[in-house]
Amino acid sequence: MLSAIMSLLGHFLWVGTLGFGGGFGMIPLMKTVTLSHHWLGVSAFNEAIALGQITPGPVAISTTFIGYRVAGVGGALAATIAVFTPPVVIVAVLSRWYGKLKSVPGVQNVLYATLSGVVGLILGVTIMLGRSIVHSAEGGLFVVAAILAGRFKVPYWAIILAAGTVGAVLMRG
Which residues span the membrane (predicted)? Predict the structure, then answer.
């Protein structure tokens, strides 16, 4: 059990250190680590990410879920603390110098370039998760509904009501 906790700690420190762009930027790294160590299968990993997306703090929930599945409460604590420690330390250190650095020529360009990379990461995660979902008519319907809901700003309660209705109809058939 201790070796599993130490493995979670080390690997999620790595995810937290290299995961640019917040939660969506961390998902590809989390997936690589989780699947390569056979901590979860693809389906369970996708469920962890989905669970995180419907609750506050998607990275915290997903990371805690993965850690718990691997090593119980100790694993949940280790993974969650590990994934957040590097960003907190980095932000604490950089915030001391940001006021001086923001006026240095080129720093704003670097920040904008980083932002562009984050947009690419988010698009990549969207495609990755989309490919793992769309293997059936229900999955395709889900993707279409998500796109329409996002595009037309459909309220969450309407999405939940529609999904429940469609699910009930599909379960009967």
Answer: 12-30, 76-98, 110-134
Structure tokens at 141: 């319907």
Q: What is the pLDDT of residues 118-134, one digit of tens each?
A: 788 788 877 877 777 67
Asked if residues 37 and 48 have their Cβ atoms less than 8 Å apart, the reply is no
Query: CB atoms < 10 A from the CB of 90, how many?
Result: 12
How far apart are the C-alpha atoms of 114 and 21, rounded to whole Å? 8
Residue 29, Cα to own-chain centre: how many angstroms?
9
The residue behind tokens 């056979």 is 38
CB 129 within 8 A of CB 46: yes
Classify burial at 172, counting beta carbons within 10 Å of its beta carbon; exposed 0-12, middle 13-18, buried 19 or more.
exposed
DSSP 19: -
Q: pLDDT tens digits for 79-123?
A: 999 999 998 998 888 888 888 887 888 888 887 888 888 788 788
Size of the chain, expressed as the number of residues it contains: 173
